[in-house]
Amino acid sequence: MKMKKVLSLLLVAAMSFSLVACGNNEDEGKKDSNATSENPTENTEETAPVELTEDADQYYNTYMASDPTSLDVSLRSDSYSSTIISNVMEGLIRLEEIDGRYVVSAGDAQTWEANEAGTVWTFHLGDNKWSDGEAVTADQYVYSLQRSANPETGCPNSFFLETLKNYSAISKGEMEISELGVKALDGKTLEITLEKPHPAFLEMCNGSIYYPQRQDIIEANGDQYGSEADKTIYNGPYVLESWTHNSKLVLKKNPNYWNAENVKMETVNISILADTATVENSYKSGDLDMLGVSSQEAKMAFHADDSSKYEYSVNSSVTFNFYNTKDVLFKNAKIRKAFSLAIDHEDINEMCFGGLRVPVWGWVAPNISVGETNFREASGEILLNQYQELIESGKTAKDLLLEGMAEEGLGDDPSTLDVTLSLAGTNDWFKTYGEYLQEVYSTELGVTLKIDFSDWGIFSSNLQSGDYQMGYMSWGAYYNDPYDVLSVFNSEYDQVGTGWVNEEFNTLIKEAGSEMDEQVRLEKFKQAEKLLFDEAVVCPLAAGTSHSFYKDYVYGYSTLSFSSNGYKDMYTKGRK
Amino acid sequence: MKKYIFKRCLYMVFTLFIVITITFFLMKAVPGDPLTKMAKNLPEQTKANFYAKYDLDKPVFNQYIKYMGNLVHLDLGESVVYAGRSISETISTTSLVSASVGSIALVIGMTIGIVLGIVAALKKNRWPDYIVMIIAILGITIPVFVLASLFQYVFAVKMNVLPASGWGEARHFVLPIIVLGFGPIATYSRYLKSSMLDTLDQDYILTARAKGLSERKIISKHVLKNSIIPVVTIFASSVVGIFTGAFIIERMFSIPGIGFYFIDSVNNNDYTMILGTTIFYAALFIVMQLLVDIVYVIIDPRIKSSIMK
Questions:
Q1: Which CATH class is domain A232-311+556-572?
Q2: Which of A247, A292, A297, A556 could form a disulfide with A569 if both were Cys (CB 3.0 to 4.6 A apart)?
Q3: What is the pLDDT of residues B234-264, one digit of tens each?
Q4: Taking chain A, what is the end-to-end CA distance rounded to the nearest angstrom?
């Protein structure tokens, strides 16, 4: 009898707990705010009501999901390290977003020019100083690039220096480091010589591997340089005041920065928050001034919050299916095409990506351009066009598959095919994705798809040994040029591991990579991409997007994915 | 006694040696390496340069010999993923952080748990017993991340009296300790209750009652001391658990503890960190076992005499 009473009391307690969780939505909207209207696609400052002035105390609380691995530009450049590095250090130039467009702005270098052939770049440095007062000189750039190219340093991103003269030989230890195509003509003049003209070279200088380094500080700290705040030196808009690994980083404005008078944000507090629930709770409690969401529920919940501004941008990572062109089944282009055209991109975006991403029908991400021309707009939606052609010719994807099977002598029954999709993860998302494709291929093609789930390490070594049939991966661009993502399929590199070899493609890419004329380059890239799809080597699905919310008192954040404005142009107005 | 401890220490070193060796070769046998996590499919030369820097291009056995050689000098090396971070320094700093939160939570949780356990045993089958058992079951079954999220929501979002996460000030300790404390409360109350009930049934308690000792004296002088013995056993694993099980709490409250490196190093194939954390945990566990055995000898005379023989 007693147990029954206790049980019912317990039930009441449990139910009231769950109600607590449900009841929060109404409260958000009632929060008092003097925010102006949101404009989700504009990134420049809102016109705030006249009575608001910039806060006296300029600080910004933000977060990142993982601790930066190292601030030594010769050793690491993961996205977390790069975010910090681009704020506490400065390179020759800084790729900024101004009025919604990319602008190559002055950094350590105030002016620069290239020779006629586009093979020699000369940079004229300004008066920037390091945080200890020492001047930034051309020698420091020479030292930095030589250090990264030096095989003994073991730099995992040294291939970024491929454009520099003699890099290949130096990285193999066949030539002296001093032969690298970088020279200090005097204290403030830096001359960089390239192997071949590279039209996007200036934009590549935005990468952290092209930043300067201080030999004296590095030698004083040895292996530990870049691992702690007090063991690193800074020449950027901010200095790293403190770094508690896996917990918090604090950035403070650098008074020695050449452009310090235009840096509004004084302090940036970056917490390392890996857990989604914690991030959301921190944002709601006011501990964070911004957050990124990756689920429809969260997105809807914060849209309803009056005191948050929504920001959306497409980034350069594309998720895609790819085929092993050496496989007994997928060596046939028609079969590959059939598997690609069987997928409905809008549907897969809804079902597998929560409707949050942007479907893409071409390989080059939607945010990449050649000069002023957006590549995707110029090249069109290739897969969509292929699908239209197929329909107009009265065929279905299955017909295409049967044609391919006939060519390979594989009979006429798709259900007899042995097809396995390799996935590089074992969590729920991958299971859903695998099941979705099984459903699609069973309905559209009559194929029974098998799935192989494995960890990234095993998946990666399978790709390298060609031990797979069909795989799924994402690829992100490092800089704003089609060469970056198309050269991946040059058979000399074959970075995805499809085994595809097409000499015409290789030639087109090589030529376009050093073609200075924009129109000619654009045409060559377009032709190359078309080749990629004629042979149906990959099936791109969606481009990554970032959905963020900022508190209404935060201004000046940039949204273009390649830009490195960082925190310096941000400010708060009307923080309560 | 001294000989016994000395023998145990020798066994400890030997066990540790076996653990390190097995971990080393198992870890190298798993496909993937630190580079695959860092970037996709790098050019051959870049990879070769990277491997050469960390001696990953040498035969596995040579790497093993080199590692063991360094180990004798207590040099655990540098992290492969987090460039420049010394393993021993990272482990010592972060384990202290984990220990500071975990030990406070353990002490508070254990004390409350023991008190509740005593109450439950003495008032068996009456309402205090039921309340305590319900608390215990809730404490064991409710997942830690649910509790953490709930507390964050109530205290940080709704009431805004405590920070949702972070580290560095006294107020950052409060929520993690409350959440971490539930486990020990649940565990110790249950163990102590069943242990006490066992003890209360023993013959010597009957004798004590027959002799006319007061109930209070019986409990405090005879029952408690004997009931504590199983609690000492689980205390050993609780101490080790401070460092391992708190991984989720540390992640949710952004506490720079050692749990992160324990899990992360395996995912990223950070060889030196994997070995460093494994050595740390193995050594800790082995030492705790030895300490527990010594405590047994002190508490329980029956064990002392059997060892002496």
A1: alpha beta
A2: A556
A3: 888 888 888 766 888 999 999 999 989 988 8
A4: 55
Interface mutation vs chain B, best among A85, A278, A318, most B CBs within 10 Å: A278
Spatial distance between the Cα atoms of A468 and B42, rounded to a whole number of angstroms? 19
Higher pLDDT, B38 or A482: A482
- Side-chain-side CA neighbours of B115 within 13 Å: the count stands at 5
* Domains of chain B, start order: 87-307 (1.10.3720.10)
Q: Which residue from B minimizes the CA distance to A155?
A: B50
Token pair belonging to A171 = 């990285």
Show the low-confidence residues of chain A (pLDDT under 50). 20-44
Of B261, B230, B235, B268, whose CA–CA distance to B246 is shortest?
Answer: B261
Contact B83 A497 (CB under 8 A): no
**Taking the alpha carbons of B216, B218, B224, B230 in that order, is the dihedral positive or negative?**
negative
Interface contact B252-A10, CB threshold 8 A? no
In chain A, residues under CATH classification 3.40.190.10 are 232-311+556-572
B160 neighbourhood in chain A, CB within 8 Å:
285-286
Which residue in A396, A347, A339, A386 sits closest to A537, CA to CA? A339
Determine the Cα–Cα distance for residues A209 and A77; give it in Å rounded to an integer: 8
CA gap A542, B83 in Å, rounded: 34
Strand-strand pairing, A571-572 and A238-244: unpaired
Give contacts of A285 with chain B, Cβ < 8 Å.
Answer: 156-157, 160, 163-164
Which residues does residue A534 pair with via DSSP β-bridges, in sequence order?
none
Confidence check: pLDDT of B44 > 90: no
Measured CA to CA, the distance from residue A414 to residue A481 in angstroms comes to 40
CATH 3.10.105.10 residue window(s) in chain A:
315-544
> Which candidate, B139, B239, B122, places its Cα nearest to that of B186?
B139
Q: B222 and B196 in contact (C-beta within 8 Å)?
A: no
Nearby residues of A154 by Cβ (< 8 Å), 6 or more positions away = A75, B49, B50, B51, B52, B53, B54
**CATH architecture of the domain covering A71-227:** Alpha-Beta Complex (3.90)
What's the pLDDT at A36? Answer: 35
Q: Read off the pLDDT of residues A276-306 as tens digits, 9 standing for 90 and up.
A: 999 999 999 999 999 999 889 999 999 999 8
Q: For the whole prediction, is pTM greater than 0.90?
A: no
